[in-house]
Design goal:
- By secondary structure, this protein is of the alpha/beta class.
- The chain has 2 domains: 136 residues, Rossmann fold (3-Layer(aba) Sandwich); 223 residues, Glycerate kinase, domain 2, CATH 3.90.1510.
- It is built from 13 helices and 13 strands.
- It has a 6-stranded mixed β-sheet with strand order 3-4-5-6-9-10, with helices on both faces. Strands 2-1-11-12-13 form a 5-stranded parallel β-sheet.
- Helix 4 runs parallel beside helix 5.
- The longest helix has 27 residues.
- The protein is elongated and about 85 Å long.
- It starts with a strand and ends with a helix.
């Protein structure tokens, strides 16, 4: 039996490869000769770089860059084995985990470090850069990132703004000059992994939806939203690019819009990017079963998450897909109408999160064994009926 193991990481616990290895151990208790193909997956968020390095090969690059609060941090990104594709998670340089609660302030945080990673990847020979933009601490519309790659911003007196781009300084911008953007980026394809449709501004925009978790007060939110509206007008005036209604433009505090405006990046579903990069379609040919998974399975799993993307791909090859979740909510059965054929919990009984994490490998091995035993029962029933 050929089985594709294509889970996401279990956030804060196991990488996607570690999850796949646990699945394989459980499967081999029942089918010791099974052909298990491990394809670590991700959806463009945390763990994307790790999953692609584990699945495709490559290396991690570390660089000291400006963090969200203006202090230097050590950030890493991946350079895949082809030597031409770099994978960046913006949270490594500009993410919430880099700040303490008291330092969260989207009026002051910047994406400058993300821009530094882009330039570093380009200098190392990358011809395609994939950027995951989840987990940001910022609301600067990508202005900090743009400064790092060479864009210049001027106030209404024609004076160049030298402070790092941040959510609070956007109102100062009167004109933008992109002529100094590093020419090394001219021939590089930049793809933004984004799975939200939020626009840049308004009640469903970057500031109102995402800024509160980044430390914004109600008063800050209105200011941040007004500032992004101002930025969009200046971008349209100076660059002749309209990002105000761009789907996904509000992701990462407007970094989505900023990358499109300043680098001509294209936006794509994170799971679709990883599916393409991992070449999972090649592995699915002649496969009998696909097992995927993520830490928490609920009704939202069907929308842009790793299990749904994997199942959608498997469905094209008429391969059944089973999801193993670290935890399963009451509404998880909703995912069956989206091409997922089976669902299993890693936890066979009630337990604390601490216990589940401590023994996660064992739980996943046992869950995979249970799944395979049920699959084999189904095959026996089918054979009996055919007789």
């Amino acid at each position: 039996m050929k089985i594709i193991l294509a889970p996401d990481s279990f956030k804060g616990n196991l990488t996607s490869l570690e999850v796949a290895v646990a699945f394989e151990k459980g499967i081999r208790r029942v089918l010791p000769n099974a052909n298990c193909i491990k394809v670590p997956m991700a959806d463009g968020g945390e763990g994307t770089v790790q999953s692609l390095i584990d699945g495709i090969g490559g290396k991690f690059i570390r660089k000291r860059v400006i963090g969200p609060d203006g202090k230097t941090v050590s950030a890493r990104y991946g350079l895949l084995s082809d030597g031409k594709t770099a994978v960046i998670e913006m949270a490594e340089a500009s993410g919430l985990p880099l700040l303490s609660d008291k330092n969260k302030n989207p009026m002051k945080t910047t994406t400058f470090g993300t821009g530094e990673l882009i330039i570093d990847a380009a200098k190392r020979g990358a011809k395609k850069i994939i950027i995951g933009i989840g987990g940001s601490a910022t609301n600067d519309g990508g202005v900090g990132m743009a400064q790092a790659i060479g864009a210049c911003f001027f106030d209404n007196k024609g004076k160049k703004i030298t402070e790092y781009g941040s959510g609070g300084m956007l109102k100062k911008i009167a004109t933008i000059d992109i002529n100094e953007i590093n020419p090394i980026l001219n021939k590089i394809k930049i793809i933004v992994a984004c799975d939200v449709n939020n626009s840049l501004c308004g009640r469903s925009g970057a500031s109102y939806i995402f800024a509160p978790q980044k430390g914004a007060t109600p008063k800050m939110i209105k200011t941040l939203d007004d500032n992004l509206k101002h930025l969009s007008k200046i971008i349209k005036k100076s660059l002749k690019r309209d990002v105000i209604k761009l789907k996904g433009g509000g992701a990462a505090g407007g970094l989505g819009a900023g990358l499109v405006a300043f680098t001509k990046a294209s936006m794509k579903s994170g799971i679709e990017i990883v599916i393409e990069a991992s070449n999972i379609r090649k592995h699915m040919k002649n496969a009998d079963l696909v097992i995927t998974g993520e830490g928490r399975v609920d009704s939202q799993t069907a929308f842009g998450k790793t299990p749904s993307g994997v199942a959608k791909t498997a469905h094209k090859y008429r391969i059944p897909t089973i999801v193993i979740g670290g935890g399963i909510t009451d509404d998880a059965n909703d995912i069956f109408v989206y091409g997922i054929d089976g669902l299993e919990s890693a936890c066979a009984r009630d337990m604390s999160l601490e216990e589940a994490i401590k023994n996660s490998r064992k739980h996943l091995e046992n869950a995979a064994e249970r799944v395979i035993r049920l699959v084999l029962i189904g095959k026996k029933i089918t054979k009996k009926r055919l007789k």
